[in-house]
Specification:
The structure holds two protein chains of two kinds. Chain A is α/β, with parallel strands linked by helices. Chain A contains 26 helices and nine strands. The model of chain A is unreliable at 1-59 and 69-82 (pLDDT under 50). Chain B has a six-stranded parallel sheet with strand order 3-2-1-5-4-6. Chain B has a two-stranded antiparallel ribbon with strand order 7-8. The chains are: A alpha/beta, B alpha/beta.
């Protein structure tokens, strides 16, 4: 930066000497947020202040801080029910924060040899800037991509293009045009987008998906939005359009009140096996407020069922849209509220019981067969076990009456690194045996061999209180655990801290994976203790299934909060409860 | 007309090149120009009045040029727009190249068809990147070749000028036939190994587990391994077991070796290694094995799976060994090396070099030099390893007594202090 200032002192007035004032930061943040909410004239003002990297960093930090604060609030509220449940949103993030080794990722150093201009320059100034630039790459493309990244104002980019064109007989390269288009689309300058569109259509026979995507996004706001659909057709010629392309086109159609096209595009999107963006679905709901049409509302309900079947959860703003739409249906008097579900599985808002986590008998049989075939067998029985061992295990399970609890011996025993394995196992087994539960302990043969960590007398006591099955040392024990639990029936639970993600991944399709996850939520007992020897307690098992659901005159829709990070194997904690006033 | 010219004066130098040719369109473009410049929202600059007007006007000049200089292209658009997906893909690649993406400059019909067959967008991009890199490497090599040829030419010329007169007879013991002699010597050694050498088996039963690309890599590694075996003082007698005739393996090997394939001094067979050798003398080498190899045994038959596994499917070779009830072993990498990154699966040529080295010297440090340097940070002292082991044992003991205390009387806290 000092280099730049000394180098081009003559027109330093053109350069914004970007002061990172702490006081300003707040205003930046608020502007940033309103920008997302779609208040446009403010955004315009904001965008002119080309953000230097430092400023972006500052805003990023502030946003991150705000997010952090919000999350803490959220978790405080949640603490009352459960400190951190294995499958509830945010738990994994918290676990990773507890781990002292994970440091905050340092931002990579920004190497920026030239400060971006904030005002249009004339050609002499551009020449000067080019001389100052030292780098291997082409100056024009470098600076234009920098501008696209920092969201410079359109005029600055335009002056760059004018300069390039002047040097180059009025020809501007395709990559510069695309980057310029990117800026125009970002700043929502529709007339500019149309100009570039004309130029591109005139100069080039066909475009590639990136430019097409940008053009679609830019054109849908104009009167010529139907041409965006033609561009979509162009993309289809060479590859499947992305769900973003569809999303843009659908939003354009809705913006111009063409509902039929929007639904057709939606059907097409589903036919391509793409998962629609939540934005797209939200747009349908937002649009639905203004029309009274039974057909349309039926389709919206279909969307909700789609969410249910695919285990998708709406975001916070989408949840608001759903609520608003329901409340806007005339004559039905829907009432919506944002609530949580109690541990008993009842909605705090209306008191209704949420769907149970248990699988239906058919689903249960299906899952059992799948686990046997995909996880344990997997095309090659030798991979995880051996046929004779499998036979031994099956005979063993058949010979025993159904178990109440199946314990992953090694996982439990290794829970406290400072305590002896066999002792921890014995503690758990004897505690459970006191409750008159039929236990099965799964382990490996090496646990029986005498060693300092596995004492024979303690293992004997374990074997007295529970049935045991020991697999070969090189076999995997988790598949056996899953099978034994499933074989014993719906009441049977299993004890392990393992999230079983690798076994879930062995299942062939996402439907089975969802079934597995649901079953896992309902049957896995995870140990909560952090220290040995204080009586082992388990995390409570969720009694309700977290999924979009309806009883006809009520809807319960779980949703993701904007500021809570949820991992794929966690479920949201917040719900939207909708019911009809009677 | 005159008005428009004065209006245009500030950026006349941009427009001059084409205003000369296309006078008729000039007026149109000026009007367009004016419309556009009025479209720019004026609220963008509060201090717009102070800014000099020429800057404002310059901004849209390029557009008219871009639009007007295209007339020729436009005519081709409608005629050339056939529905051929191949042509469309070719155009797409061309546009990507303009964008500076990693796509090849030239592309053949076959490659285009391969791209069309790619299932997903990312696989298309991946394949294009592969072609791009291939093209770049080829080009660089071409340039190098030309430079070398030029240098050689130069050298010849200078030599011709200088040393024509010094062309006198010298006395030599040997003719310069080193390469051929070496080949023949290696052939003799190979024949000897075929008769008396220790067998080393490459198990070729993994064809179904590999993608075509992985298979190609495997073949390359096999070629490399065979090469280093040939050059060794005391080569193995190599067996290619489970090599089905007309399988992809077989075809690829013949393609790569050419005529040499039938003259190779190794045994290629469709039979399995368990049919050729007694089961109890076979040791299957696999990184998944729980048993660690301590010494190289000269009376055993080592089996290496010729399998490149880029998709991380663990336990396939172990499953194969389990099925045939064979003994398995893995290299003692952890014992001798401070492992850092990367998988413990080594390539086939690294494997055979390690085995050759062990066979000749029996020295693990020497042999494990062939493990890539990037994968480990250095050698472990053997004493250090045993020291660690002892420490671990000690720890286990103290904790045992510790936890016993906690069970008896909950004196855990005091113990810890």
């Amino acid at each position: 930066m000092t280099f730049c200032l000394s180098g081009i002192g003559s027109f330093a007035k053109l350069w914004k000497s970007n002061p990172v004032l702490l006081g300003r930061g707040h205003s930046y943040l608020s502007l940033f947020l309103t920008d997302f909410c779609g208040i446009r004239n403010q955004q315009r003002w904001f965008s002119l202040k080309t953000m230097s990297p430092q400023n972006t960093k500052a805003t990023d930090l502030l946003i991150a801080k705000a997010r952090h604060l919000r999350k803490d609030e959220g978790s405080n509220k949640q603490v009352s029910s459960d400190s951190s449940h294995l499958f509830l949103a945010g738990a994994a993030k918290k676990r990773s924060q507890m781990n002292p080794q994970s440091k905050d990722h340092a931002l990579p150093p920004v190497k920026n040899t030239i400060e971006l201009p904030t005002k249009p320059l004339n050609s002499k100034e551009w020449d000067k800037l080019k001389e100052d630039f030292k780098g291997k790459v082409n100056f024009e493309s470098w600076i234009s991509s920098q501008m696209a990244q920092c969201r410079s104002s359109v005029d600055v980019a335009k002056s760059l293009l004018a300069w390039v064109a002047a040097k180059n007989n009025g020809i501007v390269g395709y990559d510069l045009l695309v980057k310029y288009l990117h800026l125009c689309v970002f700043h929502k300058q529709t007339s500019e987008v149309i100009d570039v569109y004309e130029i591109m259509r005139a100069r080039y026979k066909s475009l590639e998906p990136e430019a097409n995507t940008l053009l679609i996004r830019g054109l849908i706001h104009s009167d010529r939005w139907r041409e965006a659909l033609l561009l979509l057709e162009d993309i289809k010629k060479v590859m499947t359009p992305s769900r973003k392309n569809y999303s843009d086109c659908i939003q354009g159609a809705l913006l111009h009140q063409d509902v039929n096209i929007a639904w057709n595009l939606y059907q097409e999107l589903l036919a391509h096996d793409l998962i629609p963006m939540l934005e797209t679905l939200k747009a349908f709901f937002d649009f639905g407020k203004d029309i009274e049409d039974d057909h349309y509302s039926k389709k919206l309900l279909d969307i909700l069922l789609y969410l249910r079947n695919n285990h998708l959860y709406p975001g916070e703003s989408f949840a608001h849209s759903i609520k608003t739409w329901f409340e806007s249906i005339p004559g039905q008097q829907w009432k919506g509220q944002f609530t949580t579900i109690q541990n008993s599985g009842q909605c705090s808002g209306c008191g209704k019981t949420i769907e149970s986590i248990h699988l239906s008998p058919e689903e249960y049989e299906f899952l059992k067969g799948k686990i046997m075939r995909d996880v344990i067998d997997g095309g090659d029985q030798y991979k995880k076990t051996t046929p004779w061992e499998l036979k031994r295990f099956k005979n063993f399970v058949k010979s025993c009456p159904p178990f109440d609890i199946v314990i992953d011996g090694l996982n439990v025993a290794k829970m406290f690194p400072k305590a002896r394995e066999s002792q921890v196992l014995l503690e758990l087994v004897s505690q459970l045996a006191k409750q008159n539960l039929r236990l099965l302990v799964l382990g490996r043969k090496h646990m029986l061999k005498k060693s300092p960590r596995w004492r024979k007398d303690e293992m004997e006591m374990v074997r007295e209180q529970a049935s045991c099955f020991f697999a070969d040392n090189i076999s995997e024990d988790d598949p056996f655990l899953l099978y034994a639990t499933l074989h014993s029936g719906n009441h049977c639970k299993f004890v392990t801290k393992d999230l079983m993600r690798d076994h879930k991944a062995c299942l062939s399709d996402s439907k089975t994976q969802h079934l597995f996850f649901k079953w896992q939520q309902g049957h896995q007992l995870a140990i909560r203790n952090k220290f040995p020897g204080s009586g082992i307690t388990f995390q409570h098992i969720l009694s309700h299934d977290t999924v979009v659901q309806t009883t006809g005159d009520s809807w319960h829709i779980p949703y993701d909060e904007d500021l809570v990070e949820r991992y794929s194997y966690e479920v949201p904690t917040k719900w939207l409860c909708l019911h009809r006033k009677t | 007309m005159s008005i428009s010219v004065t209006f245009l004066r500030p950026f006349a130098r941009f427009l001059v090149p084409f205003t000369l040719h296309r006078k008729s369109r000039n007026l149109y473009s000026t009007v367009l120009q004016r419309n556009m410049s009025s479209k720019i929202p004026s609220l963008s600059y509060p201090n717009k009045e102070s800014a000099s007007p020429p800057e404002q006007l310059e901004l849209d000049g390029w557009k008219t040029t871009m639009k007007s200089s295209v007339q020729e292209d436009v005519s081709t658009v409608s005629s050339n727009k056939d529905e051929d997906p191949l042509a469309a893909t070719r155009e797409l690649i061309e546009m990507w190249r303009l964008l500076g993406r990693e796509v090849p400059e030239r592309i053949t019909e076959d490659e285009l068809k391969t791209i069309m067959q790619c299932a997903s967008k990312s696989s298309k991009k991946k394949y294009l990147k592969y072609l791009y890199i291939k093209e770049k490497v080829k080009k660089a090599r071409q340039i190098k070749k030309e430079a070398k040829a030029a240098a050689r030419e130069e050298f010849k010329k200078s030599k011709l000028l200088e040393t024509t007169e010094e062309d006198k007879q010298q006395n030599f013991l040997f003719l310069r036939l080193w390469d051929r002699n070496m080949d023949i010597a290696m052939g003799w050694k190979g024949a000897q190994a075929m008769q008396f050498g220790q067998p080393l088996v490459f198990d070729m039963a993994y064809e179904t587990h590999m993608t075509p690309k992985e298979l190609q890599n495997t073949i390359s590694q096999l070629l490399e391994s065979e090469g280093s075996n040939r050059r060794n003082v005391d080569p193995f007698h190599i067996y290619f077991c489970n090599l089905k005739t007309d399988s992809a393996y077989h075809r690829e090997l013949i393609k790569r070796y050419g005529e040499k394939w039938d003259k190779l001094l190794l045994t290629a067979t469709e039979k399995s290694h368990v049919d050729l050798f007694p089961k109890d003398s076979i040791i299957y080498l696999t990184a998944d094995s729980p048993n660690v190899m301590t010494t190289f045994k000269h009376d055993k038959i080592y089996v290496v799976g010729s399998f490149v596994d880029k998709h991380m499917q663990p336990g396939i070779s172990l499953a194969k060994a389990k099925r045939l009830k064979l003994a398995t072993e893995c290299l003692p990498l952890d014992k001798y090396l401070q492992w850092d990154v990367g998988s413990k699966n080594l390539t086939l040529d690294q494997m055979i070099r390690i085995l050759l080295c062990l066979k000749n010297t029996g020295n693990w440090e020497e042999a494990l030099k062939f493990v890539p340097r990037r994968k480990h940070t250095g050698y472990l002292e053997v004493s250090q390893y045993s020291q660690e082991f002892i420490n671990r044992m000690k720890k286990a003991k103290t904790f045992n007594s510790l936890s016993k205390g906690s069970l008896n009387g909950r004196t855990q806290k005091r113990w810890l202090e």
